[in-house]
């Protein structure tokens, strides 16, 4: 089980017993902590832990840190470089070689992500998919085995279904993540290296039982990797038992739909192994984050909690009202959602039930017409993939973000042809946005039906 203590900066830490998969040469992840660090483990509130992390001042005392935009770094003495490459001197003592290895600005963002997720360490990458693929390739070697859910983001599903088997002979057994016995039976002791799942599934919003899944995986010596992109702040998988948490920072953490980035949060010895000069996936595959991107993101994380509260409040309100209209809505905050009580038991208090909802129009044609009216006539939101933007973003998952899956795979994952995934934004006031939604429904109904008895007739 992952340590629940939040650290003020990245630590190398000692290797944990029974975590042999994390083996790797130690390198320094810590940096000198000369100010504003804290040892208080705010384990119950990710935003409190974030506030307790070291604040990095600018070079001349600015309240914002400076951007270290150098690709390479100089040394004062020629002997120093050899000591750095041997691992004797490293970022813990402000010795840097090259920004593909370590960059001070990117390391600062990593400290923030580690605090947010309650892990020992974190390393930030160029994209969410690079974070996912790097972790899986570090934990699994040729002939390895992964257990994962049928309902996954399409890119991750393609990685596990096609790319890893073809290139690395790493295979995956896909399961119903809510069927604990099915998960347990899919794990092959001695061969299965990773149990991988999303905290909330993309796009069907199935909530994973993180404590129970972690328990059965650890009992069989399997590492638990959780994609928490859909639920930052709402859920803290490492505090619930997961070993590794991955993110597409491009989404809610960024919030601006203008940055592509990812993160790996987990035990320090795993992150160390991923940065190993000889066998580390982050080091050798090179999914390097630009320092300017890290600077941008470091300034957005402090207001993530405020944004998530409003995202989630709007999603809950819209889901409740859509349900009253007779629409088929999927949202974990609704009491009839199969995992509503589970989510309540796991969620961090006061941050809501997530900012995504699904509206099932059953047929793609109906879904497309509704989205057309919502964007082009009432300005409710935008037809676009991704999530976490201040505007509402909506797409038909089956023909977009899950298009990598076959028709049979989509059926098994519960993705209907007319399933609209909505990432609920917070721009404007709530009543204004709801009025726009109702007007789009009415316009759609007017264009299809002569008998306008009920908005719910749209689904007939």
UniProtKB/TrEMBL annotation:
GO terms for cellular component: cytoplasm. The keyword Oxidoreductase does not apply. Transmembrane segments: none annotated. Its cofactor is pyridoxal 5'-phosphate. Keywords: Pyridoxal phosphate. GO terms for biological process: transsulfuration. It comes from the Eukaryota. PANTHER family: CYSTATHIONINE GAMMA-LYASE (PTHR11808:SF80), TRANS-SULFURATION ENZYME FAMILY MEMBER (PTHR11808). This is Methionine gamma-lyase. It comes from Manihot esculenta.
């Amino acid at each position: 089980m992952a340590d629940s203590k939040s650290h003020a900066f990245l630590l190398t830490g000692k290797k944990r017993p029974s975590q042999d998969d994390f083996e790797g040469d130690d390198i320094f992840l810590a940096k000198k902590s000369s100010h504003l660090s804290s040892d208080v483990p705010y384990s119950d509130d990710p935003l409190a832990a974030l506030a307790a992390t070291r604040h990095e001042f600018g070079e001349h005392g600015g309240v914002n840190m400076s951007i270290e935009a150098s690709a390479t770094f100089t040394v004062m003495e020629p002997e120093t470089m050899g000591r750095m490459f041997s691992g004797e001197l490293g970022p813990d003592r402000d010795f840097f070689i090259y920004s593909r290895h370590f960059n001070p600005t990117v390391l600062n963002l990593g400290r923030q992500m580690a605090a947010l997720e309650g892990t020992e360490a974190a390393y930030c990458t160029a994209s969410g998919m690079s974070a996912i693929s790097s972790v899986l390739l570090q934990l699994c070697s040729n002939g390895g085995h992964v257990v994962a859910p049928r309902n996954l983001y399409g890119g991750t599903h393609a990685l596990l279904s096609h790319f890893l088997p073809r290139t690395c002979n790493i295979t995956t057994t896909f399961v119903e993540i809510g069927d604990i016995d099915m998960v347990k039976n899919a794990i092959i002791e001695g061969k299965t290296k990773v149990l991988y799942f999303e905290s909330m599934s993309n796009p069907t919003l199935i909530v994973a039982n993180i404590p129970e899944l972690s328990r059965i995986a650890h009992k069989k010596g399997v590492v638990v990797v959780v994609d928490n992109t859909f639920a930052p702040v709402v859920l803290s998988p490492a505090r619930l038992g997961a070993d590794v948490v991955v993110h597409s920072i491009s989404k809610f953490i960024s919030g601006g739909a203008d940055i592509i980035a990812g993160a790996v949060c987990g035990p320090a010895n795993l992150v160390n192994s991923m940065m190993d000069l000889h066998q580390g996936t982050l080091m050798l595959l090179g999914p390097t984050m630009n320092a300017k991107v890290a600077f941008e993101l470091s300034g957005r994380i402090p207001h993530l909690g405020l944004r998530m509260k409003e995202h989630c409040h709007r999603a809950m309100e819209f889901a409740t009202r859509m349900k009253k209209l007779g629409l088929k809505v999927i949202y974990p905050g609704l009491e009839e959602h199969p995992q509503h009580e589970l989510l309540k038991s796991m969620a961090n208090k006061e941050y809501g039930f997530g900012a995504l909802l699904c509206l099932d129009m059953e047929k793609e044609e109906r879904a497309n017409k509704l989205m057309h009216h919502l964007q082009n006539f009432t300005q409710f939101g935008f037809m676009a993939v991704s999530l976490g933007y201040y505007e509402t973003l909506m797409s038909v998952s089956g023909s977009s973000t899950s298009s990598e899956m076959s028709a049979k795979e989509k059926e098994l994952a519960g993705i209907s042809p007319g399933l609209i995934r909505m990432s609920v934004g917070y721009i404007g006031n709530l009543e204004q946005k709801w009025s726009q939604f109702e007007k789009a429904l009415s316009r759609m109904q007017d264009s299809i039906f002569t008998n306008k008895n009920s908005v719910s007739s749209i689904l007939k």
